[in-house]
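The material for today's practical consists of a large collection of protein records. There is nothing in a record beyond a sequence line and a structure line. As an example, a complete record with its sequence and its structure tokens follows:
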Amino acid sequence: MTEKINTDDANFVEDPRYKQCNREALLGLGLGIANFIWWFAWGYGFGSQPVEGYTYILGFPLWFFMSSIVGAILFTVLAIIMVRKYFRDMPLGPLEEDDLKELQEGGREHG
């Protein structure tokens, strides 16, 4: 059984976690898409040349080194920066009045 919520009700307070969760999901999706574009451009852009034209770094072809090694390190660092800078620590259970005020004022700083 579902209960319909009337958002026009004066006592209704939208959960501020939804907005933050949507923001975090979009940031994660954007980083994932950027990672795929990086990997695809280096892997298929430079990896489609004849082998005789390859440049090697640490014994790896440039296209593999950039797409798989540098890309993994770069996007791991970017994910860490993104989480520390833009993600917020939020309680997952029911909100208390203090939690609600704290989230409406900008949330808790992460890390």
Remarks:
- The longest strand covers residues 56-57.
- The CA atoms of residues 8 and 14 lie 11 Å apart.
